[in-house]
Amino acid sequence: MSGGGIAFLAALERVIDSRLAGASAEQSYTARLAREGIVKIAQKVGEEGVELALAAAAQDDARVTSEAADLLYHVILLLRVRGLRLEDVAAELERRHR
Questions:
Q1: What CA–CA distance (Å, rounded) separates 47 from 51?
Q2: How far apart are the first and last CA of the chain?
Q3: pLDDT at 15
Q4: Between helices 7-22 and 29-36, what is the axis angle to 10°?
Q5: Distance (Å, rounded) from C-alpha 94 to C-alpha 4?
Q6: How many CB atoms neighbour CB 53 within 10 A?
Q7: 3-state SS of the chain?
Q8: Residue 23 has pLDDT above 80, yes or no
Q9: Angle 61-81/86-97 helices, nearest 10 degrees?
Q10: Cβ-count burial of 52 within 10 angstroms (0-12 exposed, 13-18 middle, 19+ buried)?
Q11: CB count, 10 Å around CB of 27?
Q12: 7-97 architecture in CATH?
C-alpha cells in the first residue's frame, strides 16, 4: 500500500471497507471486531484514547505515535461501521473552522 502521509488514512479506510465486506472473522481482526458489534468497537476507541493520553503524559514520541495510530485505526473502523466516512469528519472540522 502506498502511503503519502495523511492520504494514507483514506487508503486505510478503503482497506477497512474491504475487510468489512469480505473477510472472515478468522482471517481479519477488523472483521472480528466488527462482528462483535459497535459497543465493542466503541470500547476499543475508549481504551486506545486512554492509552494515547497516558503515553503523551509519560512516554516517548515513538509510543505516542504508536498509540495514536491504534486510536486512528479504531476511530476509522467505528465510523465505517456507523456508515460514516473520514470525509464526514473533515467536513465537520471545516465547518467549525469557518
A1: 6
A2: 34
A3: 96
A4: 70
A5: 21
A6: 13
A7: CCCCCCHHHHHHHHHHHHHHHHCCCCCCHHHHHHHHCHHHHHHHHHHHHHHHHHHHHHCCHHHHHHHHHHHHHHHHHHHHHCCCCHHHHHHHHHHHHC
A8: yes
A9: 110
A10: buried
A11: 11
A12: Orthogonal Bundle (1.10)
Q: Can you read off the three cell numbers belonging to residue 83?
A: 456508515
Contacts (Cβ under 8 Å, ≥6 apart) of 66: 55
In this predicted structure, what is the pLDDT of residue 5? 84
Distance between CA atoms of 88 and 70, rounded to whole angstroms? 20
Instruction: Check residues 24 and 72 and name the one with the higher pLDDT.
Output: 72
Residue 56 C-alpha cell reads as: 503523551
| Single-letter code of the amino acid located at 78 | L
Residue type, 61: D
